[in-house]
């Protein structure tokens, strides 16, 4: 069998449209990768800030539990209250614990003595407050 030369000729491949399509896909993937990286960095910053806040809260809660143990021991032993603790005319006891820029306010209300616990009280307030300073790093439009 003899084949003619024209039987083996093929048409040239047109790569213009395919090249444009692949270039557009690569650009889209690169943009998505940059956005994913930026989102991951923002998530990391937010997680670190949240962790810092939780650590501060745990520190002040721990200090508050220590202060409450001191108050409990003083009430059970009938001794004097620790320094910085205020007792009002109706018997309400107020104490504050400060750690860094946070303050924990503890308010105890005395209860009728029970057989098991002669120095019974009820915790009526356990409030954590902290100083807030606004972020002034951005120059925002104030509407004027």
Topology (SSEs and partners):
Blueprint: H1 16-77, E1 86-87, E2 93-99, E3 102-110, E4 121-130
Antiparallel strand pairs: 1-2, 2-3, 3-4
Short description:
The chain has 144 residues and is α+β, with helices and mostly antiparallel strands.
Q: What distinguishing features does this structure have?
A:
144 residues; alpha+beta; 4-stranded antiparallel β-sheet; 43% helix
Structure description:
By secondary structure, this protein is α+β, with helices and mostly antiparallel strands. It has one domain. Helix content is about 45%, strand content about 20%. It contains 1 helix and 4 strands, in the order H-E-E-E-E. It has one helix at about 15-75; strands at about 85, 95-100, 100-110, 120-130. It has a 4-stranded antiparallel sheet, covered by helices on one side. A hairpin with a 2-residue loop joins strand 2 (about 95-100) and strand 3. The model has no long low-confidence stretch (mean pLDDT about 85).
Number of strands: 4
The biggest beta sheet reads: 4 strands, antiparallel
Report the total helices: 1
Task: Kindly state the percentage of residues in helix.
Answer: 40-55%
How far the N terminus sits from the C terminus, by CA atoms, comes to: 90 Å
What is the number of independent domains?
A: 1
* Whole-angstrom Rg: 35 Å
Q: What is the overall shape?
A: rod-shaped
Outline the low-pLDDT stretches.
Answer: none
How much strand? 15-25%
Strand arrangement, major sheet: 1-2-3-4
Q: What pattern of helices and strands is seen along the backbone?
A: HEEEE
The structure class reads: alpha+beta
């Amino acid at each position: 069998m003899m084949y003619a030369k024209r039987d083996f000729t093929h048409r040239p491949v047109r790569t213009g449209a395919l090249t444009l399509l692949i270039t557009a896909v690569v650009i889209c993937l690169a943009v998505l990768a940059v956005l994913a990286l930026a989102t991951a960095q923002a998530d990391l910053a937010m997680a670190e800030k949240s962790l810092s806040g939780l650590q501060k809260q745990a520190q002040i809660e721990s200090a508050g539990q220590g202060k409450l143990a001191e108050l409990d021991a003083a009430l059970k032993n009938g001794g004097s209250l620790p320094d910085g603790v205020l007792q009002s005319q109706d018997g309400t006891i107020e104490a504050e614990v400060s750690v860094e820029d946070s303050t924990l306010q503890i308010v105890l209300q005395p209860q009728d003595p029970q057989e098991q616990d002669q120095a019974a009280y009820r915790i009526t307030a356990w409030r954590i407050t902290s100083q807030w300073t606004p972020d002034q790093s951005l120059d925002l439009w104030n509407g004027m």
